[in-house]
């Protein structure tokens, strides 16, 4: 078995958030590079309007994708960068759209690349704009098995008492611990790092800080979970 802990500033020090099943989401990187002959904005009919195509791609593909996947899968395509052109009166020859494609469901994740490619092709077909789509497969969801999750939960209670046990929600963030779980049973839990007073600082902000009392608690929990796993294997 394999175990992991991830900092969680929403939980106080001495608490451990556990969840059976998916606790994070899959995350793929998407990049679409568009090309056009370019031209003057007074004559868009003589060329392929790349900026308009970018706008269609950015707005229509995320919307259409919601109608091609199970809404319970927590699938979301969000663009984080868009670049095209410099002059107000010139249709550019190239453009770029980058974003992330996330899903909470492992089965859905395996189907997303094919669905996305079909939607991008369908949206861009009437525009005459050329494109290259790079779909970089990222991490699958972290899916905790029930037995391993129970070991982490019991370990937290052994180390910190009943108050140490906390439930946690599935996150839409990605976590490469998921690759280990493709080969071994295991679980990841959320380690409380908030002091209990003051502002809860997000883990992805430059102001993030943690109460270091969480470190020995987390270490003891992992040791206790490992001992439980070894005892089960030996029995």
Map the helices and strands.
Blueprint: E1 2-12, E2 16-18, E3 21-22, E4 26-35, E5 39-40, H1 50-65, E6 76-84, E7 90-91, E8 94-103, H2 106-124, E9 130-139, E10 143-144, H3 146-160, E11 165-167, H4 178-181, E12 186-194, H5 214-234
Parallel strand pairs: 1-12, 2-11
Antiparallel strand pairs: 2-12, 3-10, 4-8, 4-9, 5-7, 6-8
Helix pairs in contact: 1-2, 3-5
Percentage beta strand: 25-35%
Helix fraction bin: 25-40%
Gyration radius, rounded? 23 Å
Largest sheet: 4 strands, mixed
Broad structural category = alpha+beta
Unreliable parts: none
CATH architecture of the largest domain: 3-Layer(aba) Sandwich
Enumerate the strands of the largest sheet in spatial order, edge to edge or round the barrel: 1-12-2-11
Task: Give me some keywords for this one.
235 residues; Aminopeptidase; Alpha-Beta Plaits; 2 domains; four-stranded mixed sheet; four-stranded antiparallel sheet; 5 helices; 32% helix; 31% strand
């Amino acid at each position: 078995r394999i175990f992991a802990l991830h900092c969680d500033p929403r939980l106080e020090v001495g608490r451990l958030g556990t969840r059976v099943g998916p606790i994070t989401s899959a995350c793929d990187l998407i990049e679409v590079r568009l090309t056009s002959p370019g031209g003057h904005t007074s004559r868009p009919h003589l060329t392929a309007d790349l900026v308009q195509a970018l706008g269609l791609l950015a707005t229509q593909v995320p919307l259409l994708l919601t109608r091609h996947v199970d809404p319970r899968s927590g699938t979301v395509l969000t663009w984080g960068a868009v670049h095209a052109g410099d002059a107000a009166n010139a249709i550019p020859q190239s453009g770029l759209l980058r974003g992330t494609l996330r899903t909470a469901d492992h089965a859905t994740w395996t189907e997303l690349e094919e669905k996305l490619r079909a939607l991008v092709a369908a949206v861009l077909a009437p525009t005459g704009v050329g494109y290259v789509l790079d779909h970089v497969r990222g991490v699958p969801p972290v899916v905790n098995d029930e037995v391993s999750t129970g070991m982490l939960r019991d370990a937290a209670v052994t180390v910190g008492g009943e108050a140490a046990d906390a439930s946690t929600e599935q996150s839409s963030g990605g976590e490469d611990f998921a690759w280990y779980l493709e080969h071994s049973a295991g679980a990841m839990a959320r380690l409380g790092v908030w002091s209990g007073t003051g502002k809860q600082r997000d883990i992805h902000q430059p102001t993030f800080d943690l109460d270091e009392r969480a470190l020995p608690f987390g270490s003891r929990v992992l040791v206790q979970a490992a001992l439980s796993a070894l005892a089960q294997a030996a029995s």
